[in-house]
């Protein structure tokens, strides 16, 4: 059942407040009709293309229910999200930026709180005093962190793999930014409550959930174990630390000398990156989650580009059976390569041998904490002895054997040679059998 839109009661227990709802949904980046029209013109070609696809699907007899489960819906949702601020403004369903700031100044709307309030205890002061009022520049975080939707981001596509490091999204709240780059040890020295510890905890959860939904929607036929292996590649501390190094985040961290040479120092870059993710999201209640998600998606695509490209050669592996509510897309059971190879060239007396390669790689090239298996395939028969046909490497030994068989099948000329020999053998055997039948009948 679809979730109802969050209204004012979700935040403060009161009944619907339409003006507050408008303020919360307004995007300050779109302030005038001219800006709104410019945004629509900029996105017109992309939106029209998706609408034409929808029209074509409908005219071809594809039901709305099927479209609602496919890539087209996700593309339309993404395009709609981009133009939504302009549509709201043109529909007079919003307020301008100055009104939003005025609300923050006079304290009439308390659904948003500052980054400081999220990270440290309130300072002393009387209710309504200047010391307890959030500054307008601080009113940038919702009272509860937003929850990602599985449809927030479209699946990975080979053509959309980032070719260079994506821009680092800014943190729109100074308090949150200060916390991101302050180690707990330094905060203690400075007698401050601001450090990245809590943000790291939240950023870890966001990174795991965003990566999980991306992988689930991209690798539709992958097992839970395989999805976990891919996710580990993306969000393990060492990989996040590499991201942090590429952006130079550690150069901005306030770290005491005591911790610079500690045994936990290697973990700090990854922790800072997770904190940065959380801060980007919290500092921008309207678009922070989407901005962080698109940024992480681009980074992740560079890390698992080989797996994404491999998937593009097997589009049937994208189908998500759990999202196919009408089960109109049949899942055909593919005959395993080992079985196809045996059917193609093997007969009694011809043997295919799968043996472990003792000299093969022991660790996964993407994650050296994972063991891999390498299997060689040999043929005994058709005039050959110990003939090498192929090799496969995988985290799963059975899959490695299947890959070795597939490598042999991909050698078309060699397969034709042995297939012809098998056909000649079968023809001679059938002819001999027919002659024996004739002798018996006489």
TrEMBL record:
Query: What are the start and end residues of every segment in region (Disordered)?
Result: 1-27, 120-144
Which segments show compositional bias classed as Low complexity? 133-144
Q: Which residues form a coiled coil?
A: 30-57
What the entry lists under Gene3D superfamilies is as follows: 3.30.160.20, Ribonuclease III domain
GO CC, one annotated term: nucleoplasm
One GO MF term on file is: RNA binding
Kindly give the InterPro entries that the UniProt entry links to this protein: dsRBD_dom, RNase_III_dom, RNase_III_sf
The protein's matches in Pfam families, at most eight in alphabetical order, are given as:
Ribonuclease_3
Q: What keywords are assigned to this protein?
A: Coiled coil, Endonuclease, Hydrolase, Nuclease, RNA-binding
Q: GO BP, one example?
A: rRNA processing
Stretches of Polar residues bias are at: 120-132
Domain (RNase III) spans 173-285
What is this protein identified as? Ribonuclease III
| Biological source species | Sodiomyces alkalinus (strain CBS 110278 / VKM F-3762 / F11)
């Amino acid at each position: 059942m679809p979730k109802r839109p969050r209204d004012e009661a979700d935040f403060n227990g009161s009944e619907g407040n339409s003006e507050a709802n408008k303020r919360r949904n307004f995007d300050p980046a779109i302030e005038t009709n001219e800006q709104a029209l410019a945004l629509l013109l900029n996105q017109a070609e992309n939106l029209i293309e998706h609408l034409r696809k929808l029209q074509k699907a409908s005219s071809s007899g594809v039901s709305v229910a099927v479209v609602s489960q496919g890539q087209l819906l996700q593309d339309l949702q993404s395009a709609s999200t981009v133009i939504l601020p302009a549509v709201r403004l043109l529909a007079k369903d919003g307020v301008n930026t100055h009104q939003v700031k005025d609300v923050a100044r006079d304290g009439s709307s308390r659904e948003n709180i500052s980054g400081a309030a999220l990270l440290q205890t309130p300072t002393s002061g009387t209710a309504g005093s200047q010391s307890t009022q959030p500054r307008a520049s601080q009113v940038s975080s919702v009272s509860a962190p937003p929850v990602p939707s599985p449809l927030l981001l479209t699946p990975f596509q080979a053509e959309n793999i980032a070719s260079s490091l994506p821009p680092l999204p800014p943190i729109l709240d100074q308090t949150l930014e200060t916390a991101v780059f302050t180690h707990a040890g330094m905060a203690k020295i400075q007698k401050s409550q601001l450090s990245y510890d809590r943000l790291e905890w939240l950023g870890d959860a966001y990174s795991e959930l965003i990566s999980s939904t991306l992988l689930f929607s991209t690798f539709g036929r992958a097992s839970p174990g395989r999805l976990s292996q891919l996710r580990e590649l993306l969000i393990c501390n060492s990989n996040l630390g590499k991201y942090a190094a590429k952006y130079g985040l550690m150069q901005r961290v306030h770290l005491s000398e005591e911790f610079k040479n500690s045994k936990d120092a290697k973990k700090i870059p990854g922790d800072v990156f997770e904190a940065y993710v959380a801060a980007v999201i919290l500092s921008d209640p309207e678009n922070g989650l989407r901005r962080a998600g698109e940024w992480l998606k681009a980074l992740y695509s560079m890390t698992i580009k080989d797996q994404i490209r491999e998937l593009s050669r097997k589009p049937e592996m994208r189908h998500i059976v759990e999202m196919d509510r009408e089960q109109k897309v049949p899942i055909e059971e593919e005959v395993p390569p080992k079985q196809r190879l045996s059917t193609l060239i093997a007969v009694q007396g011809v043997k295919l041998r799968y043996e472990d390669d003792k000299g093969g790689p022991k660790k996964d090239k993407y994650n050296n904490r994972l063991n891999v298996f390498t299997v060689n395939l040999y043929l005994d028969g058709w005039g050959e002895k110990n003939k090498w046909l192929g090799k496969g490497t995988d985290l799963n030994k059975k899959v490695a054997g299947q890959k070795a068989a597939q490598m042999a099948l991909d050698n078309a000329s060699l397969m034709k040679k042995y297939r012809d020999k098998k056909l000649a053998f079968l023809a001679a055997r059938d002819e001999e059998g027919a002659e024996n039948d004739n002798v018996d009948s006489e």
